[in-house]
Write a structure and sequence with these properties.
Layout: E1 4-9, H1 13-23, E2 28-34, H2 38-48, E3 52-53, H3 56-62, E4 67-70, H4 79-86, E5 91-93, H5 101-114, E6 118-120, H6 128-136, E7 144-152, H7 162-165, H8 168-171, H9 174-183, E8 187-195, E9 208-215, E10 220-229, E11 234-241, E12 244-249, E13 252-257, E14 260-265, H10 270-283, H11 293-312, E15 316-317
Helix pairs in contact: 4-5, 5-11, 9-11
């Protein structure tokens, strides 16, 4: 079996997770790992006996790649994707796509022009419990959606700074926004109300956000986020349709009906399945990429609209074709 050679840009925790999964596939070879902090690249590359590079340029220049993973902080997106696409390489990008909409739009346009396989790390789309939720909602349109991401500030220095992370809605809650689009539909208008950082808190990102989402199909939605805690308190999506209420998280689905309450645990395969689907797309042997770049761009536009609304202090409408 010919193995495909994948280069990884980024050497943080998310890159390490993908490297562990990819290295378990018999038809994949990790070709090299790049990071602007060379020591980090060396540590991760050393686990797999592959070269380390001080930036994506050197990784791409080394050649012999079949695909590239871009697992970098929000502020570092742009050049790695565009340079990989200039070589015609398939691209897996971790969310969020960028700090802003313009950078992601530019990458999306180039990916479409090149016609290469793409995927984005919205691994929640591969949850077994999401498939179960969709089946339960078949013929019963969602009328109310309650999305929440109530958590802590991750222990990385760039995260509390708006110019580097884009804020919690973009960096974390984008997972549940993507889930809302998947289960409910496209959003036409948002109105976000932020609670800013106070004196003594590191950085300048909002510490909490409450938002109203108006879906194009008539459903109503709410989003609540906070990074005030020392633990991950809650992250998921609740939806209600006629006669049924569902509470969906990364680990389980709780179903409420007049007959009672039922809990289904997810087997935990989503993080592997998202990588397997991309590898199969690159090999031309599968068609299960559930969030190609163009599709993930819709969720990114939605997150950017919420961020814009919070900053402007007024509702923001999304154009047709946006999230």
């Amino acid at each position: 079996m010919n193995r495909i050679r994948i280069g990884i840009v980024g050497a943080g925790n998310v890159a390490a997770r993908h490297a562990a999964v990819l290295s378990s596939f018999p038809d994949v070879e990790i070709a090299g790992i790049a990071d602007t902090v060379l020591d980090k690249a060396r540590v991760l590359a050393g686990e797999y006996g592959v070269p380390a590079y001080s930036g994506h340029e050197a990784l791409l220049a080394a050649g012999s790649l079949d695909a590239v993973y871009v697992c970098v902080p929000p502020f570092a997106h742009g050049a790695p994707e565009l340079d990989a696409l200039s070589l015609g390489l398939p691209l897996f990008v971790e969310k969020p796509l960028a700090l802003d909409a313009a950078t992601a739009e530019k990458i999306a346009a180039e990916a479409a022009r090149r016609g290469v396989p793409t995927a984005v790390g919205h691994h929640w789309r591969y949850l077994d419990v999401l498939d179960q939720a969709r089946a339960l909602l078949d013929g019963r349109p969602v009328r109310l959606a309650l999305a929440h991401w109530l958590d802590k500030i991750p222990p990385v220095g760039w995260w509390p700074h708006r110019a580097m992370s884009g804020g919690q809605v973009l960096e974390q809650a984008i997972h549940v926004l993507d889930l809302a689009r998947t289960l409910v539909g496209e959003v036409g208008e948002v109105h976000a109300v932020p609670s800013a950082a106070t004196d003594g808190q590191e950085g300048d990102i909002d510490r909490a956000t409450a938002a109203v989402l108006r879906f194009r199909n008539g459903a109503a939605g709410l989003l609540a986020t906070s990074c005030l805690l020392g633990w991950k308190h809650r992250a998921g999506l609740e939806v209600q349709a006629d006669g049924i209420a569902l509470d969906l998280g990364e680990d389980e689905l709780v179903t409420h009906t007049s007959e009672g309450r039922r809990v289904e645990r997810d087997p935990g395969h989503a993080r592997t399945r998202v990588d397997r689907a991309f590898v199969d797309a690159v090999r031309g042997t599968g068609d299960d990429v559930r969030a190609p770049y163009q599709e993930a761009l819709r969720t990114h536009r939605l997150a950017c609209a919420l961020t814009s609304s919070a900053g402007l202090g007024r509702p923001v409408a999304l154009e047709d074709g946006d999230g």
